[in-house]
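Subject: Predicted fold for diguanylate cyclase, 507 residues

User T.R. writes:
Posting the sequence so we have a shared reference for the thread.
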Amino acid sequence: MERRFYWQLGVLLLLTIIVNLALFYWNTVAVQKSEQLNSNWQQITSSNLEKAVLLAKLDQSMGYGGFIHHFKNYVLRRDSSYLLSVQTDLAKVYDHIHALRKLKLSDEEISAIDIIESTVRTYAQKFSEVQSERFKRLGVEQLDEQVRVDDYSAERAQESLRASLRNSYEHALILQAKLRNETLSTIRLGAFVVSPIVCFAAILNMIALWRIAVLFRERDVLFEVTPDSILYCDKQGHITHVNKAMEELFGYSKAQLLSMKVEDLIPESNRTRHINLRQGYSGNSKLRHSKKDGLSIIGLHRNGTLLPLDIAIASVNHGAKDFSIAIVRDITQEEELVIKAERDYLTGVYNRRHAYSLLEDELIRANRYRRALSVLLIDLDNFKPLNDQQGHLAGDMALKHLCEFLTGSARPTDVIGRWGGDEFLIVCPETAHLSAMSFAQRLVKEFAEQAEHGLTLSIGVVAYDFVSDQLSANDCVDQADAALYRAKSRGRDQAVMFEVDLMMTSN
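User M.O. replies:
I've generated the structure tokens; pasting them so everyone works from the same file.
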């Protein structure tokens, strides 16, 4: 279900990207068309306006009140006051024609300007002739006849320029209308197609966000209600997140735990070892289980109580951050059950079943690594009379006293188990004949010195310098039992070594 959701989320993300790209493209096109519409209008308007202004100035400089008007007044009235006006207007006409030629013109417009300029030059030539002495002696009618210029073609040319200006403006209007329609079409496309898609994508995103929020809420609820204690820590061991069960397990509040390091929850004597273990787990995404790894993790409660823990650890890499997740269980009750299952309820040493299992393990180890091994089977002499005469309570106290004595005398690596009734088994790893016999004799001597009620020890000893893979736990016990039988038959209060040929044993 979760995988399907993430797949849907990926598809939604891809759809969102596509929709945003489409929206970006639509906005870009709309902006470009708007800019093009504005740019074209400005260019056409600017060009046509400049052309219209120059044509108006040209008409003004040439027509009524302009160059030709002053020229005719000068010819008819012979008034020299018009001379300067003619020259000034003529210069303006040339300036306007020159300015028009600088604009972007069509071939027809250039031809029309050529005609106008030719006519103006003809007038200018006549004006020069009129100022000569020969023309001053002529009458008005004769002078008018001499300087008359056919300017009909110039008028047609000016009309052609005005018509071209109107056509250009009308073309600009048509082009602007086309661009405006295209822009409106683009906007409508966005309004009726892109916008609904964007809204749909937004709704899908809202649904996805809602589902993500639900998942996070469910995760938080599950995180808090799970019976196992859970903590998150960074690479340096700083605790970053805990659930309610974690608070209850160690007796700290959430705020207190978040200000601590993982090692603060470990007894001080074990912290260095724990740091090494944690660093060994760091960066490994595989889930590791401390109990399966054969590790014994002890936690420290706020009140100082030691807690046997079972811990599952996984390391996670999230972007640039590395952190570890630990699931912690208090196995105090499990340890108590294990102890009850492995220990003798009265004496506290291993029971027969577990002692037998440990003997099998030691036989395998001794055979694999070619190590020596010894087994002692111990019987408490005169136990039955004590039990019958003084009762079971005295008998129980005697058995407890014996186990305390054996535990204090044996090595930490030795295995002590109650074999049945008043018989006890000691498995001594890496102990050969001489050492085993010396240990057994020491037990007999020291126990007799401090025991009461005439209690003594009879011990059967079997020792192997090399353990054959054919040797079983039953064989060991049988041989030790045979040696014990000899010790008891010889008068008790002694240790007897099982006499077995070394070569036969190794075979």
